[in-house]
Fold:
Amino acid sequence: MIRLDGIERVFQVGEEAVHALHQVDLTVAAGEYVAIMGPSGSGKSTLLNILGLLDRPDRGSYFLAGAKVSDLGEEQQAQVRRHQIGFVFQFFHLVPRLSAAENIELPLTLAGVDPAERTRRVDTALTAFGLADRARHRPDQLSGGQRQRVAIARAVIMHPKLILADEPTGNLDRAAGTEVIEILEGLNREGLTLIMVTHDPELGDRAHRRIRMVDGSIEADSG
Amino acid sequence: MQLRDTLRFSVHAVASYRARTLLMLLAMAIGVASVVLLVSLGESARHYVANQFSSLGTNLLIVLPGRSETTGGPPPLLGATPRDLTLDDALALTRLSSVRRMSPIVVGSAPVSRHQLEREVLVVGATAELAAMRHLKLIQGRFLPAGDPTRGMSICVIGVKLKTELFGGDQVLGQWLRIGDRRFRVNGVLAPTGMSLGDDIDETVIIPVANAQALFNTASLFRILVEATADDTIATAKERISATITQRHDGEDDITVISQDAILATFDKIFRTLTLAVGGIAAISLVVAGIMIMNVMLVAVSNRRAEVGLMKALGAPRRHILRIFLTESALLSLAGALLGLIAAAAGLRVLAAFLPQFPIVIADWSAPLALGVAVTTGLIFGILPARAASRLPAAEALARR
Structure:
């Protein structure tokens, strides 16, 4: 599913070049449940950004579902993100002026799907994530857990094969966090590849495979 | 992304940021309103002058004695004074095929009296054709009768103001007036026309041209008014008139023929230029509005970094994001322009209420022009912020909150 070969990412901080990622090789099979862990600044978020095509590596190749996506142009990478990758963020990143249903609809809107088809898929998703009675609420009228459920519904509305989650429970209380992680694990059981960045060891222990990063390199990989 | 969705998304975004939206609408509305107002005022002035001219008659040519051209060099010692225009010169013009009618004009000032009331007024000697040529209307009686211009009749037509001053409410028609040392019978009263480029017709007496020549003891004419047969014969008529008079004046080209259209065209050009200049100055405020749009949109982009990052993560390519932000600034400038048009229309109404004698016209091309310019400004000044948004690195835009 995923293969990274010799990924390098260097940031220029003032005069100094910081190696955020250094010679990272990684292979993830379809349907895996991976937790990326490590201290702050270890490069785990950078790795997730590169996996999500939100950032480009300075060197190395990235193969996703057999295609070398690291060489694609901006427009094609956007298309890969649209159809193959779903994102879940720590701060939810819901558009504040749009209702829950409209937020879930957004990827379909951006992809130019017809309104009738959009409504049908959004309704299904709302029911599936237990948000049917919250469809018209704006994000500030929702609880943290509900917001993250909206975000997850949005992430999977395009039926991606890969879910990238960046500290998905980082901004939630324990109960809501557990609920969210169970939803994500449920998606994984249905066959979606789940890659999650976290520094909560308890959360990491639930994953089937743990990758530990230090100073931009993979230090340990349980897989 | 479908166009309809882009529009809906932009409208939603615009409506969600009230303060910035109001500011931008205000800036654009002021710009558009000032352009439309000033251009319309300029156009109104142009129409006013054009109307004044058309009240003088159509396809008119004015024949003046003397050359109006300067030839340079010292003035000739002999024969420098131009030959006078005579009644015979005028009559010769009626034989030209391109001339529909003409009226010789003699003008002078003379005391006009009835009983003990006396006024010093403008006395115009003319022929029956003058009424048709200058669209003169009468409220009582008739104009000068047609007939041989060389033989006068002691009758006159008076302006309405003169009538009230000399006769009050008395019977006018058939009454006698003394003009200079001669007596004239009143044949008609002119309808009030007001000022027509400086001549107050309401205070004028019109008498047959032969009588005027006798009254002022002159054989020459002040000018000859000629009406060409049609719009496209004016040039021919002008040439033929010059040729005819030159021939009659022993080969000396000593007259000037002015076509009224030429004067009108000059005025028209001046006012058009003026209108454009004033409109151009007002357009500066549109540019200011554009810069304001740019500024506010840049702030909007930096406020919505996370949203831009999110849209990128959801698979929107750069051009989608560019389009969304451009649509926003275009919508804002369009809405502002519409508001400005409404404000301008209201302002012109108020002006029209205060200046009833000045005909206010909204230049019909000013509205589409202002709308077009406003939207173009919005788009041009929207490009920079929209590009800034589309080039935001997604990972960075999402990282901060």
About this structure: The mean pLDDT of chain B is 85. The interface with chain A takes residues 1-2, 5, 9, 12-13, 16, 306-307, 309-320, 393-395, 398-399, 401 of chain B (CB under 8 Å). DSSP finds twelve helices and twelve strands in chain B.
